[in-house]
Amino acid sequence: MHAQVSPWYAHAAQRLAATDPAQVLAPPGRMEWSTHRGLGPGAEILGHCLSGKRLMELGCGPGHNAAHLAQRHQAHVTGIDLVGLQIQRARSHYGHIDGAAFAAGHALHHLQAASGSFDAIYSVFGAVGLTAPELLLAEVSRRLVPGGVLAFSVPHPARAGRHPVADDQPREDYVTMPDRTHMPIARWEFDAARWAAHLSRTGLRIDSAVELRHPLLDAWPTTLLITARKS
Ligand SMILES: C[S@@+](CC[C@H](N)C(=O)[O-])C[C@H]1O[C@@H](n2cnc3c(N)ncnc32)[C@H](O)[C@@H]1O
To answer: Beta strand pairing status for 118-124 and 54-58?
Structure first.
């Protein structure tokens, strides 16, 4: 039998081999929703004053955005990631920052087990789009305060000439490893209308759906950024 390494674990292990995991870092000066620095909105879509607010990030990786929100906006942020190596990395980079906490595990389980509610929940190419939406969005909605915000960015479903799915099923995509090899994953590739339909079933209403495309580097929109609110 052939054991299959999780793509997200493999990605983190390769990245870790090439970086110093114990390095203390200063958080980035801006929240990023796409892979291009400075493109599109920043933290303001999570709310205009985040000081003292309770936030959760689903799929935080090494924690750059969570650290930014805690240090620059004085929010209380919990970053969750499936891969323990990413959480080790996040803690060693940003564990010293007040208001930033990191925990390993599945986003769905953390939402189910969390105590209290959150003012905003967000995902940057993280668990939203990688986990069955009918399960994840229902838990997100249950954990948000009334008026609370869900914001998430996903790879644009029409990137590089693709087409959004015509049903609610995931399709095969791949993760590009630091060494440029690829590993397959399942991804829910919805357009904004399909996300709106799924969100509304759980009591969330879309405020905005923005397509991000670098004007010089991208021939197609690369990122879909959705902001929704709990009614
Ligand atoms: C493309 S990376 C993005 C990381 C980070 N948000 C960033 O922008 O740097 C996707 C991350 O989501 C995590 N992930 C995937 N599925 C998850 C799940 N169900 N629960 C928690 N984390 C998940 C992966 O382990 C990986 O670290």
So the answer is: parallel
Q: For position 22, what pLDDT does the model report?
A: 75
- Ligand 1 centroid to Cα of residue 61, in Å, is 5
User: What residue ranges define each of the domains in the chain, with the CATH number in brackets?
Assistant: 50-105 (3.40.50.150), 127-231 (3.40.50.150)
* 74-93 tens-digit pLDDT: 999 999 999 999 999 999 99
* pTM score: 0.97
Q: Which residues line ligand 1 (CB under 6 A)?
A: 8, 58-61, 64, 80-83, 86, 106-107, 124-127, 130-131
Buried b (16+ CB within 10 A) or exposed e, 87-105: bbbbbbbbeebebbbbbbe
Q: Do residues 173 and 162 make contact, with C-beta atoms less than 8 angstroms apart?
A: no
